[in-house]
Design brief:
Length: 196
């Protein structure tokens, strides 16, 4: 092989390598808006799921320590949608760090809607104690301002791009709670919560 054909061969290899590298570069840097949104959404979904789980665990710990007597006044119902429709949910708790109150706390640093829990009593039939049902929601994103319209029940308002996750816990209701006052007073028998 003469020197001229070897130079041509080397030039051909260099051109092929440059073409392959340019294709790889185009593939890496040509991310569409949808790919970027999916990447952010998957991170947001992980955060929302972790917040829902932590909210459920928090509520379980609170009920195991001291079951709230106010839940005994709730009317037992068959499902969460009916409970919401009839206004029978109770003990709602929310952590929402809005931009107005926490301007320096960005959503990636824990700002925005974090979690919401709402509790209702599930009717399991006559003479059967109701279950205490905790609906725990985790969020990633900001609700609308002002604070007075940020949530309806545990549904965030004003942002249709809010990422959320939902955990439902069914707990044994302490003896007497939800159908009749327990013999030792409201809130008695907290050890039953969580099935211990």
């Amino acid at each position: 092989m003469n020197a001229r054909s070897s130079r041509g061969f080397v030039l051909l290899i260099v051109l092929i390598a440059a073409a392959v590298l340019s294709l790889i570069a185009a593939f890496i840097y040509n991310r569409t808006e949808n790919q970027l949104i999916m990447s952010v959404a998957s991170r947001g979904q992980s955060i929302a799921a972790a917040r829902a789980t932590l909210a459920a665990e928090r509520q379980l710990a609170i009920y195991r320590a001291n079951y709230p007597a106010a839940l005994t006044t709730l009317t037992s119902t068959t499902d969460y949608a009916t409970a919401k429709l009839n206004g029978w949910t109770g003990d709602r708790q929310i952590q929402n760090l809005s931009k107005a109150t926490w301007p320096a706390l960005d959503v990636v640093a824990g700002g925005g809607a974090n979690w919401c829990t709402e509790t209702w009593l599930m009717n399991r039939g006559p003479t059967v104690p109701p279950w205490t049902v905790v609906e725990a929601f985790g969020f990633y994103g900001y609700t609308v301002e002002p604070p007075s319209v940020q949530f309806t029940n545990c549904d965030p308002q004003g942002n249709n791009r809010m990422i959320s996750s939902h955990v439902t816990m069914y707990l044994e209701t302490p003896p007497g709670a939800g159908n009749a006052p327990p013999p030792c007073g409201p809130g008695c028998g907290t050890g039953a919560v969580g099935g211990s």
